[in-house]
Amino acid sequence: MGLQLGQIVAALGGCLEGGDPQTPITRIAPLESADAHSISFLHNPRYAAQLAQTQAACVIVAPAMREAALAHGACITTPDPYAYFARLTQLWQAQQPPAWPQGVHPTAVVHPEALVDPSASVGPHCTIERGAVVGAQTVLRARVHIGQGCTIGERCILHPGVVIGADGFGFAKQNGQWQKIEQLGAVVIGDDVEIGANTCIDRGALDDTVIADGVKIDNLVQIAHNVKIGAHTVIAGNTGIAGSAKIGAHCSIGGAANILGHLQIADGTSISPTSMVTRSIHKPDLYTGIFPIQTNAEWEKNAASLKQLSQLRERIKKLEKALNALTEDK
Amino acid sequence: MGLQLGQIVAALGGCLEGGDPQTPITRIAPLESADAHSISFLHNPRYAAQLAQTQAACVIVAPAMREAALAHGACITTPDPYAYFARLTQLWQAQQPPAWPQGVHPTAVVHPEALVDPSASVGPHCTIERGAVVGAQTVLRARVHIGQGCTIGERCILHPGVVIGADGFGFAKQNGQWQKIEQLGAVVIGDDVEIGANTCIDRGALDDTVIADGVKIDNLVQIAHNVKIGAHTVIAGNTGIAGSAKIGAHCSIGGAANILGHLQIADGTSISPTSMVTRSIHKPDLYTGIFPIQTNAEWEKNAASLKQLSQLRERIKKLEKALNALTEDK
Amino acid sequence: MGLQLGQIVAALGGCLEGGDPQTPITRIAPLESADAHSISFLHNPRYAAQLAQTQAACVIVAPAMREAALAHGACITTPDPYAYFARLTQLWQAQQPPAWPQGVHPTAVVHPEALVDPSASVGPHCTIERGAVVGAQTVLRARVHIGQGCTIGERCILHPGVVIGADGFGFAKQNGQWQKIEQLGAVVIGDDVEIGANTCIDRGALDDTVIADGVKIDNLVQIAHNVKIGAHTVIAGNTGIAGSAKIGAHCSIGGAANILGHLQIADGTSISPTSMVTRSIHKPDLYTGIFPIQTNAEWEKNAASLKQLSQLRERIKKLEKALNALTEDK
């Protein structure tokens, strides 16, 4: 597999300088591990010093870095080298044969009343239930489950083990036992959504669970019934979002974060990994709640004190009063 | 799809007043989004004010709310409106065609020595291994795995991707390497248990892992070997329960909570989401251990102080001593 | 199923004393629940008192415990009773018929360009994509997914629902939307690796994700792209390891722990369950970061104080200054 530098520029644009367009490229690599047949990129000016050391045949850089790059060898200049790199990986991937031919794999089970666009790919062991809709060019990689009446938009990618439209977790207590509340809503997923392996998105109780366009969700994420997620929000792995939470657009939710139910998170909010959101967030910012890690010996001492923190606060208050009294006495 | 008010009362009981039994109902909806063809319910008297605004054709209410509801329109009175609502969703669901016909789907793999009740439903791509038992009216939705020798009771629902009876995580260290401890126990699941998508319940090491009747488990939950879970306990998504923990009956475990191994949790205990249970709990109460979330800037300051909390406590102690000495001096 | 004591010693070594080699054993059991047909083991000298009470026909003990054991009945002495017990479970398991016959189950989908060793077992509904390699005696239990170009070593066990080689989570922001960075690396897994149910290991972005020999990973673990995990490290359930983290050999990562991306963890490090590793760890030790659990009432008070902890520290500092001034005054 490989491409010539000239083919890359022909496909993706940018300006090639200081190198022969026929130079064969066999690898995309980070600056530090690139070899003479690699193309690399400089995204963050902080790493500019790596330009001098890299063995790369060509480096994708912003115009401001053009001279520094040319001092070393060939470069492609482009306003956003990281986005260019992303498109280059897509060009590279397009050369690879697909894992499975387009269309519905013979081991997939598709209900006759489901609607799968002819340009969609449905991999081995997928199940698509009655009334489900899968949009154009969407790819269900392998054993993806699309529950009854759920809708997946266009150009989505669902990785192996994804479960869309299992029942939300709803029960009514009656005489100490749990009556099932049947989940009568569905899941509606927009266009250009990617959903990681073994992630689950439950159907709504009465209304739908809704994932807007361009949302990217990592592996093993749990999205409960009636959640709404705004466009272009990213959610890292192991995260849990409880029922009826409403996450804004352009948010960034760190891995293993958790968001309580019935909350609202403002557009553009970032949540640090493993943090627990217990109240609505109306002002976009980066929010964090992580217990700092220490050696276990140190932690034990601090955790013991933490259990008495409100008492410590009382003791400080008392000290302040007593000291005030002493000072006034004088 | 729809039902007349009279059909609902005929099926579920309750007393219909102020409305025509032939009124067609096409939707179950919350009070605030109900329309003239919706039936709604008032569960929490706190929301009684919504009665005045709702467009619902009929509202399910407790007898105490009868008058307020009638002032608006039709109502069904019943002692427990939320449980009535739950049963109404079941009535509604029963009208829908099932995702797959009853019985064993042709793509399921059932070992000839497994015992599947003829009234059970086994969806596409399920695997049921040798010696496993699946009880009457139990539903395995799709690609559910029931390991060798495991038992599922009656009227259970297992959602897509559930894995029952994978090996527990047991190894013995020998010369810096790990010897596998084969997991010789099984999993025994009672009646009326519901298990969410992609949840895993491991087989016991020597004895069995046991889930009692009426337990409800959400998605992506990890239940390790030899855990025992008491009847009618609910466990929300992403939770992890480590080996040999014994959870009581009627407990409520919040999402992404974790329970260490070999602990006991008293009947009726509640654990807040994301909290880590590090010791046995003998007295039922609500227990919490969540690092409060703040803006990252605030968090950084507080987390830094937290790492020195036991020192702060020492400084307070010193201050108290010094102040005492001063006061006594006078 | 059963074995005679003499058969056990013949297969596993050790020295049988005080018992008839023809004694039939039908169960392996803990000391406290063993019966007259059980074999048990004493691993931890702390539990030596249980020797006197056990009903076991034979107990596996270290030589130092030989006399105490013989006072009760038969024993097998061996330097490492726990490792002996592990091997005994393997001997036991080998008597059971396998869940599925060796070889590739007819419902598995194996790409013609994948390379599966003839001694490997591929269970129902597995998918093995183009260019993937599965080593000798490796077992894929059921619906395991091995992505394009990924390599699994010898004698590995992959439990149901495992996903190897889904795309890593990589996107470049462009005009507020996310461009996919195609994941061009693969996953390389060494020998003797065990991977728990529904665990996901993503393919690398440019280079590979690498799991070294002897690593044991529990259920529902998320391992992101380009992670490297050193030999014989164990990782408990629900854990998340973010992209490009480099975990050493012989580490022990507790359940639901999380490790940020691009960190390094020294060989031999232990991380407590649910702890969040936010910086590299260069010195092996046990590290912990857990918010201590309390009743919710106590927690509320302490959590409120925690949000002002850095202010409390300032107040202590002020008190110290004021007290100093007072003392110097005198």
UniProtKB/TrEMBL annotation, chains A, B, C:
Q: Which CDD domains does UniProt cross-reference here?
A: LbH_LpxD (cd03352)
A single GO BP annotation from the record? lipid A biosynthetic process
Chain segments annotated as coiled-coil in the UniProt record: 302-329
Domain (Mannose-1-phosphate guanyltransferase C-terminal): give its ranges.
104-203
Active site per the UniProt annotation: H225
EC numbers on record = 2.3.1.191
State a single Pfam family of this protein.
Answer: GMPPB_C
Gene Ontology terms: cellular component: membrane
Its top-level enzyme class, in one word, is transferase
Q: Which UniProt keywords apply?
A: Acyltransferase, Coiled coil, Lipid A biosynthesis, Lipid biosynthesis, Lipid metabolism, Repeat, Transferase
Recorded metabolic or biological pathway in which this protein acts: Bacterial outer membrane biogenesis; LPS lipid A biosynthesis
The record's GO molecular-function terms, alphabetically, read: N-acyltransferase activity; UDP-3-O-[(3R)-3-hydroxyacyl]-glucosamine N-acyltransferase activity
Keyword Cytoplasm appears in the UniProt entry: no
Instruction: Kindly give the PANTHER family that the UniProt entry links to this protein.
Output: UDP-3-O-ACYLGLUCOSAMINE N-ACYLTRANSFERASE, UDP-3-O-ACYLGLUCOSAMINE N-ACYLTRANSFERASE 1, MITOCHONDRIAL-RELATED
User: Per its UniProt record, what NCBIfam families does this chain match?
Assistant: lipid_A_lpxD, PRK00892.1
According to its UniProt entry, the function of this protein is described as:
Catalyzes the N-acylation of UDP-3-O-acylglucosamine using 3-hydroxyacyl-ACP as the acyl donor. Is involved in the biosynthesis of lipid A, a phosphorylated glycolipid that anchors the lipopolysaccharide to the outer membrane of the cell.
Subunit-level organization: Homotrimer.
Name it. UDP-3-O-acylglucosamine N-acyltransferase
Taxonomic source organism: Comamonas denitrificans
Q: What is the lineage of its organism?
A: Bacteria, Pseudomonadati, Pseudomonadota, Betaproteobacteria, Burkholderiales
Query: Encoded by which gene?
Result: lpxD
